[in-house]
Specification:
Elements lengths: L2 E14 L2 E14 L3 E5 L6 H8 L7 E6 L2 E2 L5 H7 L3 E4 L13 H12 L4 H14 L16 H13 L5 E5 L7 H18 L2 E6 L2 H7 L2 E6 L2 E7 H6 L4 H8 L49 E5 L2 E4 L1 H4 L14 E3 L5 E3 L4
Parallel strand pairs: 3-8, 3-9, 6-7, 7-8
Antiparallel strand pairs: 1-2, 1-4, 4-5, 9-10, 10-12, 11-12, 13-14
Length: 343
C-alpha cells in the first residue's frame, strides 16, 4: 500500500526549569493510505504530542514529516495553511474543543470562514449536509455546546474535522471522555466515515480494546519511543516486547471465572527529563540484562511486518532491520547507528 504520511526521526522536546523534557524521542513510522494506525501507551508516553507534532500544532524539534511525499516541516505559513485542508484532528475533550459562544452551525462552518469558502446559501447547505453525515438532527443547528450531551458534542467535532474534505485525520483519544455505550456509537461512526470518504486515521488511545477494534496496525509507545509496531492481529496474539505483554495482560476477559495471568511491573516510569542511557524500559523490565542499561536496543523486524526494539528478540533473531524494508537510519543519544521501525 502507498504511504500517505512518512514520519522520520521525529523529536519534540520542551524546555522546563529542570531541563529538557523529551516528549517524543526520535521515532519513525509510516501511515498507509486508507488505513488506521493505532498509537497506544500509558498516559505521558508521548502519544498526543506525536499526533500534534505531525500536524504542526506543536512544532517538532527535529525530524521530517512527509505528507504525500512533501516535508511539511519545511512549509512556510502560507503553504502550511493550504496543507491543513488535508490534515485535521478530532480532539479528546468534546466540550473543551468547542467554542461555547458559537452555535453548532457556526462551529461547523468555522473552517469555511477561515478559507473564505461558499456563499451564505451554500454554507448553510454544507453545514446541514455535514450534520446529516455525522448523525446530528437538523433541529440542533442553532443549539450551543452546553445544550448537548458528550456524544453529540463529539459528533460536532467530527463534522468540523470533515468540513474541508481532509485525507488524513488524527483522532486524539476521541472516545475516552464518553460513556461506554456512546463510545461504541462514535467508533462505528468513525469507521463508517473512513469507508465512505476514503479517510486515513492515526488513532491515539490508551484503551487497548478500542485500539483492537478500530486499528489495522498498532504502534506501542513508551517514554517517547515506539517499542513495538505490527498489525493489530499480531500485537494481540503474539506480543514480543515485555512492555506490550504487560499492557495486554491487564485486559479483562469478558467471561465469568476466566482471568489472564497478570504481569505486574515493578518500579516507576523514568523521568522524560532524564531518560535512561540504555533501553528506556530497563528499569521496569523483568528480563533486564546488563547490556540493556548500556545502549538502546536496535529496532529489528522479528517477523514480516513486526518490528520490535528489545535485546531479548534481537539476540534470537537475525537482525533483519527496518532498513531492509525501505526505512531510514537514526542515531541514538550516544551517536550509535540504529535502525528505526517503519510503520
Amino acid at each position: 500500500m502507498e504511504n500517505l504520511l512518512e514520519v522520520r526521526n521525529l523529536t519534540k522536546t520542551f524546555q522546563t526549569k529542570k531541563g529538557l523534557l523529551h516528549a517524543v524521542n526520535d521515532i519513525t513510522f509510516d501511515v498507509r493510505k486508507g488505513e488506521t494506525l493505532g498509537i497506544v501507551g500509558e498516559s505521558g508516553c508521548g502519544k498526543s504530542t506525536t499526533g500534534r507534532a505531525v500536524l504542526r500544532l506543536v512544532e517538532p524539534t527535529a525530524g521530517e514529516v512527509q505528507f504525500e511525499g512533501r516535508d511539511i516541516l519545511a512549509y512556510n505559513a502560507r503553504a502550511m495553511r493550504e496543507a491543513r485542508k488535508d490534515m485535521q484532528i478530532i480532539f479528546q475533550d468534546p466540550f473543551a474543543s468547542l467554542n461555547p459562544r458559537l452555535s453548532i452551525s457556526q462551529i461547523i462552518a468555522e473552517p469555511f470562514d477561515v478559507y473564505r469558502m461558499y456563499d451564505a446559501k451554500e454554507r448553510a447547505n454544507r453545514v446541514l449536509e455535514l450534520m446529516r453525515t455525522v448523525g446530528l438532527s437538523h433541529k440542533l443547528v442553532n443549539a450551543f455546546p452546553h445544550e448537548l450531551d458528550g456524544g453529540r458534542r463529539q459528533r460536532v467535532g467530527v463534522a468540523r474535522a470533515l468540513a474541508l474534505n481532509p485525507k488524513f485525520i488524527v483522532c486524539d483519544e476521541p472516545v475516552s471522555a464518553l460513556d461506554v455505550s456512546i463510545q461504541a456509537q462514535i467508533l462505528n461512526l468513525i469507521q463508517d466515515l473512513q469507508q465512505k470518504l476514503n479517510l486515513t486515521y492515526m488513532f491515539i488511545s490508551h484503551d487497548l480494546s478500542v485500539v483492537k477494534h478500530i486499528s489495522d496496525r498498532v504502534a506501542v509507545m513508551y517514554l517517547g519511543k515506539i517499542v513495538e509496531l505490527t498489525t493489530s492481529r499480531k500485537i494481540f496474539t503474539n506480543p514480543l516486547h515485555p512492555y506490550t505483554q504487560a499492557l495486554l495482560s491487564a485486559i479483562p476477559i469478558p467471561k465469568v471465572g476466566k482471568k489472564r495471568k497478570r504481569i505486574i511491573l515493578s518500579g516507576d516510569v523514568p523521568s522524560p527529563i532524564n531518560p535512561p542511557k540504555g533501553c528506556i524500559f530497563s528499569g521496569r523490565c523483568p528480563f533486564v540484562m546488563p547490556k540493556c542499561k548500556e545502549a538502546p536496543p536496535p529496532v529489528i523486524e522479528a517477523e514480516p511486518e513486526h518490528f520490535v526494539s528489545c535485546y531479548l528478540i534481537s539476540d534470537k533473531v537475525a537482525p533483519k532491520t527496518a532498513a531492509s524494508t525501505d526505512s531510514t537510519h537514526s542515531s541514538d543519544s550516544n551517536g550509535t547507528s540504529q535502525n528505526s521501525a517503519t510503520a
